Structure formats: C-alpha cells, structure tokens
Amino acid sequence: MKTIDIIKGNKAVFVECHSGSLVYEVNDTFRFSVPVKDLQGSRVRATENASVFMKWIKVAVQQINKAELENRLNNE
Predict the structure, then answer these.
(1) For residues 75 and 53, what is the distance between their CA atoms, to the nearest angstrom?
(2) Is 2 in contact with 10 (CB distance < 8 Å)?
(3) CB atoms near residue 53 (< 10 Å)
(4) Any residues with CB less than 8 A from the CB of 7 and at least 6 apart, and which?
(5) Any long-range contacts for 25-34 (C-beta under 8 Å, 24+ apart)?
(6) Among 2, 20, 50, 70, which one has the highest count of C-beta atoms within 10 angstroms of its own C-beta?
(7) For residue 74, pLDDT beyond 90
(8) Which pLDDT tens digit goes with each residue over 18-68?
(9) Could you tell me which of 50, 47, 49, 18 has the C-alpha nearest to residue 35?
(10) What pLDDT, in 10s, does the model give residues 11-22?
(11) DSSP characters for 41-71?
(12) Is residue 1's pLDDT more than 80?
C-alpha cells in the first residue's frame, strides 16, 4: 500500500470522534485517525482534501504495511 495512492485526488470524510481522535475515511475503504491534541486548535471540516492529513495517513499506511509483513513472515 502506498500513501500517494490514497492521497492523490481524493477527499477524506469525517466518520466519527472516538477516544480523543477524529476518524476519517478515504474512498469508503481506508480509515485513519487524527488525535485531537495534534490539531492544536486548527479548524478541520467534515470533508477535506486527503493531502491535508498526509502526516496521519502516512503513519496508518506504515502500521498496515508492518502488520502485513509480520503476518506474511508468521505464515511462512
């Protein structure tokens, strides 16, 4: 999974607020969370360009890729 494929030309849509994080979704499939404390008073809308959230999307992609690699290694 590549971060650019998720961000390029896509919108992130607010889904829910849970445990101090805003949860957004891209293309009805990829979900990621943004800790409210990281926003430091910034204003975010219900729908934003996915590129606005690149920092958090990148972290989520890294976590997914790491989990997939560990899963493959455990199944060999």
Answers:
(1) 33
(2) no
(3) 22
(4) 26, 50, 51, 54, 57
(5) 26/50, 26/57, 30/6, 30/57, 30/60, 31/60, 32/56, 32/57, 32/59, 32/60, 33/60
(6) 50
(7) no
(8) 999 999 999 999 999 999 999 988 898 999 999 999 999 999 999 999 998
(9) 18
(10) 999 999 999 999
(11) T----SEEEGGGGHHHHHHHHHHHHHHHHHH
(12) no
> If you search the block for the tokens 């910034």, which residue do you land on?
42
Which among 35, 30, 27, 40 is positioned nearest to 63, based on CA atoms? 30
Q: Count other C-beta atoms under 10 Å from residue 4's C-beta.
A: 11
The length of the chain, given as a count of residues: 76
pLDDT of residue 75: 79
Residues 12, 24: contact at Cβ < 8 Å? yes
